[in-house]
Amino acid sequence: MAHYQAMGDIPPKRHTQHRRPARGGRTGELYYEELMGEEGFSSDSSLLYHRNIPSTVVGAREWSIGDLSTTPNHPLVPRHLRLHDLFAPKDVKNTDVVTGRRLVLGNGDVRISYAVAGAPSPWYRNGVGDECVYVERGRARVETVFGGFDVAEGDYVIIPRATTHRWIPRRSTKDPLRAYAIEANSHIAPPKRYLSKYGQLLEHAPYCERDLRGPEGPLLAEDVGARADEESEVYIKHRGNGPGGIVGTVHTLPFHPLDVVGWDGCLYPYVFNVRDFEPITGRVHQPPPVHQVFEGWNFVICNFVPRKVDYHPLSIPVPYYHSNVDSDEIMFYVDGDYEARKGSGIGKGSISVHPGGHAHGPQPGASEASIGVEYFDELAVMVDTFRPLELGEGGRAVDDGAYAWSWGRPRA
Ligand SMILES: [Fe+2]
């Protein structure tokens, strides 16, 4: 994020002495300044002031992060994955958003996982890349070293690489916490074309700075009912020789991770709610880039929100058939009725996989049926990747095996 924020106790000048309050006539101890920055001091950064030396670690062990193996989409077919079948209700109580997420799809740039969680996660940081976690249903408290967030349905939670944090589901009267995790191997940010040369969101962008929520902080151990000197563990996902080039380690710290008394800068977690996305509409069908919300290296994130649809007198509101020759297109159907997919079996909680190398578009009859429709009540989150996606164990487990034949009957 290019927008400067300052929070808590920071010195007036960077890289200068910053101390705890003096006590009994004695000078307070120094806080420990940490610069957390991207691209080797050449991009956005923040300065964090810790009570403890941030490099302290008193133990390290392997964290077995689960099955991150992937299987190519071969033979090449479009697929329908039923995400809501991934977790049985009895499993939710003991599942957390971090260690319980199951890999649905992945490639060398991005992984899409899913969790239905009722348990608090351990302290965690992703050393591989930024995370964008979309809250499909339910509520949670997300505690980070920058501060906390209350998150709920429709929130995209953007967590920069190496941010120590944890997820604590809140009991909801309606739904458990359903989290759709998009993990990059890179950074995730608003599309460059939405930004001025200095990083402000431009007038044509479908959202602006007012729609982004920064953390509430600072957040210290005592604010969450813990002791500052409480020994703790942090689960770290990092680069290594496991499937997807990823492995895990657990570090033991001799203190609580929430020890940042203040910070400032342009790098921090933030939240954007999909309901604040202002759709761009037209007389004829608008292409998916108007629905884009974020981008990472070699992939984009778009959302299709409830909106007035095409109003040319001869318009066809559902999309034309399209062959995105350079990308795989992954649609996660969150809410409403998705007009183009009527009759395909796709519903809330479904994912469609439309791979590059194969044209896709509305189900038979959907184009004709959409004529005259003025409003689409639909909500979907789309990830388009430039490298082909492979199926993770979660994706393989809930593939309906029939979607490919929903435009024509399969040969026996
Ligand atoms: Fe498409």
TrEMBL record:
Region: Disordered, residue numbers: 1-25
Ranges of compositional bias, category Basic residues: 13-23
Pfam families: HgmA_C (PF04209)
Family annotation (InterPro entries): HgmA_C, Homogentis_dOase, RmlC-like_jellyroll, RmlC_Cupin_sf
Domain Homogentisate 1,2-dioxygenase C-terminal: 299-375
Matches recorded under CDD domains: cupin_RmlC-like (cd02208)
Cofactor requirements of the protein: Fe cation
PANTHER family per record: HOMOGENTISATE 1,2-DIOXYGENASE
UniProt family annotation: Belongs to the homogentisate dioxygenase family.
Protein name: Homogentisate 1,2-dioxygenase
Organism: Pedococcus ginsenosidimutans
